[in-house]
Amino acid sequence: MGADRDDRALLRAVARGDADALAALYDRHAGWLHARLSRRCDDPETVREVLQDTFLAVWRSAGAHQGGEAGGWLWTIAARRLVDARRALARADRVETPEAQAAPSAEDHVLAGLQYGDVGTALDRISPELRDVLRATVVDGLTTREAARLLGIPEGTVKTRALRARRELRSALAALAAPGPLESLGGTS
């Protein structure tokens, strides 16, 4: 049914309660959303629940869509649902086992310069809030507005943190590239 309709038309139909339009939207977007969520979360059950919650939210709030790119809107909803799911799991883990550490995601490894590079070392030197903004805007390619929704902060804060993150990352990389006192004397022997 939805093959000849664009996403905006499908969302308008979903807002009117058209379940077939929601099915068409699901068929069109669930695959890439599932793949992208799976890269951020290694628990298939959580990914399935987040995907289901995403389309339930679309069913309930399709009328709120402002007419922009539907894929970005869907990803913002899915990413926010994933954050909520992780927070719920973290709360449950704190009750069951104190101080459980999550394994770093594949994106964290890439961001860490294949785990041990200068970029990874520099990223470790900036605050988690700044790293989160870099991840949302650079790795995920979200707009400022989408990153603000995902992170639950104002757009101006995203812009400020992105600027600070770039500045601090540049400083940290420069500090790593500068020769140490022994290196400038010709080595460590």
UniProtKB/TrEMBL annotation:
Pfam families, per database record: Sigma70_r2 (PF04542), Sigma70_r4_2 (PF08281)
Residues forming coiled coils: none
Domain RNA polymerase sigma-70 region: 25-91
Keywords: Sigma factor, Transcription, Transcription regulation
A GO molecular-function descriptor: sigma factor activity
Biological-process GO terms, alphabetical: DNA-templated transcription initiation
Organism superkingdom: Bacteria
Segments forming domain RNA polymerase sigma factor 70 region 4 type: 119-169
Family listed: Belongs to the sigma-70 factor family. ECF subfamily.
The protein's name in its UniProt record: RNA polymerase sigma factor
